[in-house]
Amino acid sequence: MNATVQSATMQPLDDSGNFGGCQLDEGIDYVGNDIGSVHMLKPLSCCSACYYFPGCRAFTFTTHNDGTCWLKSAKGPTVVNPAARSAQPYLEAPSCGLEQGVDYVGNDIGSAPASKPGDCCDVCSTTAGCRAFSWTKQNGGTCWLKNRKDGVISKEGVTSA
């Protein structure tokens, strides 16, 4: 059996426009890594459910109980299952178009060590809710992870995306 791919772009779910949608893998089941489930009638509705569920990085939709999204912490192994549709939401972390001398003030959701600003892009893309960051030289280099870009100011020694 051949699996097909269906792509859908959804409207942004927040003011910063950081949610892009999903590309469904038709007939594919992401096995394991379940962290929760929600009742949904359509597979593309799982995109939004996963986006808002902490730690969700992928999902599999099945017709179980008239539609269930199996939320997952990671994609995991795949198997062919004609009754399943799976995807990883486009969470669109920063594009890593780094802006030197720019600081996004407030909206901190955490921090992580990083020796250079470019490392923050990877950290942000794997952190739930991260939509932007500011990097400083503090403590040998720190990514200040943000849930949105607000309060933009000019600040020497800070790099943001």
UniProtKB/TrEMBL annotation:
<keyword id="KW-0677">Repeat</keyword>
<dbReference type="Pfam" id="PF14295">
    <property type="entry name" value="PAN_4"/>
</dbReference>
<dbReference type="GO" id="GO:0006508">
    <property type="term" value="P:proteolysis"/>
</dbReference>
<protein>
    <recommendedName>
        <fullName>Apple domain-containing protein</fullName>
    </recommendedName>
</protein>
<keyword id="KW-1015">Disulfide bond</keyword>
<dbReference type="InterPro" id="IPR000177">
    <property type="entry name" value="Apple"/>
</dbReference>
<feature type="domain" description="Apple">
    <location>
        <begin position="22"/>
        <end position="96"/>
    </location>
</feature>
<dbReference type="GO" id="GO:0005576">
    <property type="term" value="C:extracellular region"/>
</dbReference>
<dbReference type="InterPro" id="IPR003609">
    <property type="entry name" value="Pan_app"/>
</dbReference>
